[in-house]
Every structure is written in C-alpha cells, then in structure tokens.
Amino acid sequence: MPTKLESPVKTQMAVGLVSGLLNGECRKSTRGILARRRRVFVQTEAGCVLGMELERGDNADTVKRKLQLALNVPTDHSSLTFGDRILNNDLSAIRNHSPLLLARNVMHRSSSTPCLSPTGKNLQQWDRSGPLEILGCSKYFASIDELIKDIVVAIKKGIEPIPVHSGLGGAYYFRNIRGESVAIVKPTDEEPYAPNNPKGFVGTSLGQPGLKHSVRVGETGFREVAAYLLDLNHYANVPPTVLVKVTHSIFNVNYGVNGDKIQQKKKVCKIASLQQFIPHDFDAGDYGNSRFPVACVHRIGILDVRIFNTDRHAGNILVKMPDGEFGQVELIPIDHGLCLPEHLEDPYFEWIHWPQASVPFSEDELEYIKNLDPIHDSEMLKMELPMIREACLRVLILSTIFLQEAAAFGLCLAEIGEMMSREFGSKEEKPSELEVVCLETRRMIEDLNMSNFVAEEDNDAFLSDIECDKAGLDHPPHIPSFLFKQFSYPFGTEGANSHYLLPKLDESLVEGNVDLGTRAVRAERVINQPNWYKPVSKLSMSLKKLNVDETGQLQRMGTLPGIRRSANDQLPTSTSFVKLADMCEEEWVLFLEKFRELLYPAFSKRRSTTIGQRRRLGTSCTF
Fold first, then answer.
1. Which is nearest to 17 in space by CA: 50, 43, 42?
2. Taking a C-beta distance cutoff of 8 angstroms, is the pair 212, 345 a contact?
3. Is the pLDDT of residue 508 over 60?
4. What's the pLDDT tens digit per position in 258-291?
5. DSSP string of 91-154?
6. What are the angstrom distances between the C-alpha of 235 and each of 293, 368, 545?
C-alpha cells in the first residue's frame, strides 16, 4: 500500500536527481539527447527537492508520474505549479534550472505537516550536479561565479557552514577555504512557518500565506534576488544575490507537525537564496543615524519605495565604518524577502523619521528616479525570475510610478514614506494615502465599465433577433442588471454622496491657475471624508452567487477581470484594502492612467499638511 502523500518526515529527505529512474539507458544517452532536455528542480510543500530532466515529450502528468515512482506516493490530487501557473500539458515555458512546486489541491489538504517519502536505494547516485549551483543563467550573476567556486572548494575540503542563531528562519554562513564567511544561505523551506524551520516557527506548507499574508511561505528567496536585480548599477548597495540549489548535511529537516529534529544528519538538497556576505562593523540599530550620509539613506529609501519593502528595520541595514579619518560611513541594505508583496500592505521604513529622509532629493537623485522604467524592470524580472507572480510585478510598477510622480511634484523621501504607511492608534486599521488613491481609481474603473456596458446594451437594442440571424451574429446576451449590483466596487459610497472620493480636476486646476492653498483645500475636502470605506472583512468581492454562464458573459463583456484557474486561487483572502492582480490587462492599463491623474490632489494635501506642521528638522541640518 503506497505511503500517504503527507507521511512523516524521515520522508522529508531531499533527494538527488531522479532523471533516468524510469529509463535504464540514461547513462548511455548521447550528447544530442541531453541537449534536448531541461533540468528542473521540483520542490514539494514540505521542502523536499528532487532534480530531474525534462524531455521534449514530457508534460505535467509524466513529471508527476516520475515523482510518484521516485517517492512512492500518490500525486493524483496534486498540482505542479510555476509561480502563478498551474502546469498541464504544455511545459514549453519552463526554462532550464527552473524551480517548480508540487502542491496538493485545496480540497485534499490536511492539517498535518506535509511531507513526501522518497524510496529506493542510493538515489543520490543520479545527481550529476555539484554541491552548489545557480538556478538560471544570467549576465547579472557573473560577478558571483567565483564566489560559488570558492564555496564549492571549501565544501569539498570539509569546511562546514555555520548556522545563524539570530532571526526567525534558518540561515547559514558558508565559508571559503580560509574559513572566512563569504555568503549567507537561506533555504526556502526553513523560512518562518515553513515545514523545516529550525527555530520552532513551523505552521504551514510551502505556497501558503506566511508572516505577511501577501508573501507566501517559500517565496522570500526569489524576492531577495529580485531586490538585487532591481538595484540598478548597484545604486543602493544591495549585495549580489542568487537563487541556488545546494546540498549539505548542515541543513535542518523536521519530523511531523511538532518540528522535531532528525537526529542523524544526512545530506539534503535545498532551494535557497545565496547572498554575498559583506564584512561590517554594526547594524543601524547599534549605531546612531546622525553620521549616516544623506545620499546613502536616500538610495536605500528609493529602493524600498520601488520594491514596496514591508520590513526595512534597523537590523537589516549594515554599517561599515570608514578606513581612514576622512572616509565616509557605508550602508549595506540586506534581507529583502518581504518586498514585492502580492497586494498593498502596510510597509515599514526605519528611515522614515531619520532627519536625512526630510532633506530634498538632489538633482542626481531626481534624474535617477526619472529614468526608472518600471515596465522594462517588470519584463526583466519575468525573464530572470519566471516564477515571480504577476501581482508582485504590478506592485513594482505601481510603487515606481508613485515614486516618480511624488519626486517630480517635490515631495521628500519622508513624505513619500508617510503617504505609503497606514495610521496607527485607531481601533480600525485605515488605508494609507496611497491606498486611498488606489481605491478611488478602482471606483473610477468600475464606473467606466458600467458606462461602457450601458452604451453597448443601448446599441444592441437596435439589433433585433431577426437582424442578428441575417447578419450571422449571435443573439445579444442579456445580463440581468442585478448582477452588476453584486459587482459594484466593494468600498461603498458613504461620505462621497455616491460620487468619486477624489473628483475630477476642473479645467482651471489642470491648467495650473489655482494656487497651492486652494488645491490643498479641495484635496483635503475629498480625501478626508469620514468613514468612506467599509470594514476590511467586506472588501472582497464574491463570485459564489454567479453560475458559470453568467460569469463567462461578464468576463467577455469586460466588466470583470479575467477569471481563470491559477495558483492564485489557493491564496485565502487576507487583510488588504487594495489588490491589483484581479484586473484584466485592459483594466490595469486604464487603472495606471487614472491613477496618475488622481495623484496630484493627494500630493497637494500632503504638501499642505507638511507646511502646516513645524519646519522639518532635516531641512535645516547639515550631514
């Protein structure tokens, strides 16, 4: 009788390459046959990693059958996922060295810790790879190749990694032949709440919501890499970071739901982020910020805004003291695993109250911000990290546009951070100023969709059924009006008299004929409407009352985002005011256009608030 899909984790031994398991002639393969294959690494929800080669005729079912034979477990009720996509017959989008996730379907999840049971003898013999290799081939990772080689030499010489005892997740310092720490490795299955977390924070399987509901367990690793890739020209000083497949006995594997450790250490294969270790003297929490250069603070802040960092605390800003008397303090930002959330969160910016953040941007900084290209950056991440989710890319685009418009308006870094942050002290969490603009933009899109539908319905009224038959057209679909009441944007109309919270700018405002004070008053009047939003629990739209035909009609008419089966369906509703991934492409383009239009009154309000307060300390300080 086959082992249950989620059996106890002696079973969790990550095993080596299983290509050839079904084909005894694998070792006799010619170079031409091997050239047609792609190597992938399939990770189970429990963190077990299996390397295999995809052949030209393989599809998701054949891959799952190979996994079932290798692990002796049923995979019928599991799905093979790659970022947003649930893989079926076509695996053409899977690139060489891509990490895939084998996840159970929602209906077949149990409350126990998931694990798989590899069987067979000496499966490690099939692993023809080394102890450490980079996932993906990119020009961006060329600078870290020598570092990887040094680590591999040290591993083969018996130089053991050192576990990092701080933090909530598993991390390890890997060393060179001289015993010096040169990299920090963070396995994705040892993150907080992940099944193999070594510090007791075990709670769910890979792919489920983690510490932040907008960042799934096991997906902080590629975010670390994304932050490095987005740090164009090493502007903010993010250390080189790559995604790797690494095999070593130092890693942690737990038994079952209690997180008990396996006593006998064996070599296990993990997918992890690897970041170059930068020698430093302090972190920002141990050293006062008064000596931090304005430019360094600004550069880190610009990066944090772009990537919507939800975890920029003092401990992940390293401080390197100058060598000489006239040198300058160097800041190194690390730990970017909680950036690029799937929906807007409450970010945390340690620098928001530092005086340097209140100093206006320099001309060089404004030029750098102006030249950012979020669409190009999004496409680059798709190429380099194809597993990244579309929702994350939309957050990147939105936050970069917000940064560019705010900087061009004249706001400083602190003001930008404040507009992105939610208020504290109230009983009910309120959206940030950025989220307010996004909510109103969504309201505008909904109203435009309604207007378009009414116009199309009026036009269709002139075509009778007979005329449709003569023209060879389908009869115009009739969609009951009550359906649209269910899909009106769920943020309500209170406090705005059923009109936009941020009304359209009148001609005089667009032409610049209204002074700053007048603009600010108008903006404040529309933004500060009391109780304009409903509680968070009422924000998500429900599709349960629609039958299949009605849903299909609404999708075709463009009044609803494209509804398709994807890995996103597995993400439970979380506390959020603004989600971006539920818009179809046309709506997203329109959203960005209207979003830009509505930013101006919000910036005016923020500026008037700043002027009304006492003069900012940073504007009168010299650093």
1. 50
2. yes
3. no
4. 555 555 678 888 999 999 999 999 999 888 888 8
5. -TTPPTTEEEEEEE-GGG--SSPP-----SS-GGGG--S-SEEESS--GGGGGGHHHHHHHHHH
6. 14, 9, 50
| Per-position b or e across 94-116, b if 16+ CB within 10 A of its CB | beebbbbbbbbeeeebeeebbbb
Answer for the pair 542, 486: CB distance below 8 angstroms, yes or no: yes
Q: Give yes or no for a contact between 419 and 432, defined as CB atoms under 8 angstroms apart.
A: yes
Query: Which among 133, 156, 163, 153 is positioned nearest to 145, based on CA atoms?
Result: 133
DSSP 8-state assignment for residue 488: S
Q: What are phi and psi of 301, to 5 degrees?
A: -65, -40
Contact, 391 vs 576, CB < 8 A? no
Which residue, 208, 165, 200, 170, is CA-closest to 46? 208
What are the φ and ψ backbone dihedral angles of 120, each rounded to 5 degrees?
Answer: 90, 160
- Do the bridges between strand 38-44 and strand 98-104 make them parallel or antiparallel, or are there none, so unpaired? parallel
Alpha carbons 231 and 239: distance in angstroms, whole number: 9
Token digits of residue 255: 């038994």
Q: How much is the pTM?
A: 0.72
Helix ranges, 167-318 (H): 220-230, 294-306
- Hey, which residues does 162 pair with through a beta bridge? 173
Residue 129: pLDDT band with limits 50, 70, 90:
low
Half-sphere exposure of 19 (CA within 13 A, CB side): 22
Would you say 390 and 562 are in contact if contact means Cβ atoms under 8 Å apart? no
